[in-house]
Amino acid sequence: MREMPGWKFLEYFQAQTLDATADKIARILAGNPDFKDHWVDIQGYAALVHRELEMLELEAAVGNTATGGLNHDEQQAG
């Protein structure tokens, strides 16, 4: 998984979540697949990534509004 080309483009929290999810899948396959907590954990990992992405999107939108729609380079040139 870490050898895939896209791994280097992941945010830290995305890579950590994929690792945790892979570990959880291994536990499911090596143990009791009917243990509900495993599945709840995977759902929780995905929800955390979703929340982080929502926060990044909001921060970008607020930053864009605060700068009049200009990115950092455009502000410096302006």
Radius of gyration: 18 Å
Unreliable segments of 5+ consecutive residues: none
Number of strands: 0
Mean pLDDT value: 88
Task: Give the overall silhouette.
Answer: elongated
The biggest beta sheet is recorded as: none
Annotation field: number of helices: 3
| Proportion of strand residues | under 5%
Number of domains: 1
Distance between the termini: 43 Å
Q: Helix and strand string, N-terminal first? A: HHH
Class computed from helices, strands and strand pairing: mainly alpha
Range of helix content: over 70%
Could you explain the architecture of this structure?
- This protein has three helices and no strands.
- By secondary structure, the protein is mainly α.
- The chain has one domain.
Which key phrases capture this entry?
78 residues, 3 helices, elongated
Task: Write a compact overview of the structure shown.
The chain has helices at 12-30, 36-66, 72-77.
How does the SSE layout of this entry go?
Blueprint: H1 12-30, H2 36-66, H3 72-77
